[in-house]
Specification:
Helix content: 40-55%
Oligomer: single chain
CATH architecture: 3-Layer(aba) Sandwich
Length: 268
């Protein structure tokens, strides 16, 4: 993990084979896309999620594809959960090199109409869960003594507001941006790089309506496309290349960055 890029071949700059990765929220659209890409890259994966059936199905698919896969049917809701995830990864694969946090939550509502418990659920799902996963994984990486990589999931909504009942979600993603930068500062001396990938919108069950032909979806989609220079909405796979790069030796001097993968949405 600490080899300088100048000592690596071009191919070696992006070689993550044989490493051990922990992915939270692995059954979601983004988590599963990254899990598939990690396995295809030769990485050993520990996948977590609260939907046991979906997790088993994904695990079976990836094992059939030749993946070395460990499954943990938990959400990062407590330190006990995240400690168990790390123990499972280390028990199955001997060590932990990467953490990718894809578990999250959104409950849109105008602030004057939102139940404070729903607001807290979004903060817990997006911020507390990521913080706990980082705490458990980072502690182990520090003890290992040879660095590591952490990639969190932010959003353009951590930077830009949205008049669609997103006071909880936008706040949570702004917190992820702050967590990314803070941990990069704290863990840099340990050789642990911490970055975040920040999509605008990508296809998932939560926003499937925006990809359909109903008038509400068409209007929302046209609004997004109107300020997206690349002229289309994203797929989960559009995020994968950036995540793999941030985990790779080639990104060894990149830390504390929020990388927008948004088709240019934040450029204008």
């Amino acid at each position: 993990m600490s080899v300088a890029p100048t000592q690596l071949s071009a191919q070696g700059l992006f070689d993550i084979s044989g490493r051990s990765a922990l992915v939270t929220g692995a059954t979601g659209a983004l988590g599963s896309a990254v899990a598939r890409a990690l396995v295809a890259s030769g990485t050993k994966v520990t996948l977590t999620g609260s939907k046991a059936d979906a997790l088993e199905q994904l695990g079976s698919e990836l094992r059939t594809a030749g993946g070395d896969v460990e499954l943990v049917a938990r959400r990062p809701a407590s330190s006990e959960d995240t400690d168990a995830m790390v123990r499972a990864a280390v028990g199955a694969h001997g060590r932990l090199d990467f953490l990718f946090t894809a578990a999250g939550e959104n409950r849109p509502a105008k602030i004057e109409q939102q139940d404070p418990q729903d607001w807290q659920a979004v903060m817990d799902g997006n911020v507390r869960g990521s913080w706990l996963a980082c705490r458990s994984a980072g502690s182990h990486m520090i003890d290992q003594g040879d660095g590591g990589r952490v990639v969190l999931v932010s959003s353009t909504r951590g930077r830009l507001g949205l008049a669609a009942g997103y006071s909880a979600y936008c706040t949570s993603k702004a917190a992820i941006d702050g967590l990314t930068r803070t941990l990069a500062c704290e863990w840099g001396p340990h050789g642990i790089a911490v970055n975040a990938v920040a999509p605008a919108l990508f296809r998932s069950p939560l926003v499937a309506w925006m990809y359909g032909d109903e008038p509400r979806g068409v209007a929302a989609r046209e609004g997004m496309l109107g300020r997206t220079p690349l002229g289309r909405l994203a797929e989960p796979e559009d995020m994968v290349g950036t995540v793999l790069y941030l985990l790779s030796p080639g990104a060894g001097f990149v830390t504390g960055q929020v990388v927008y993968v948004d088709g240019g949405y934040t450029a204008g």
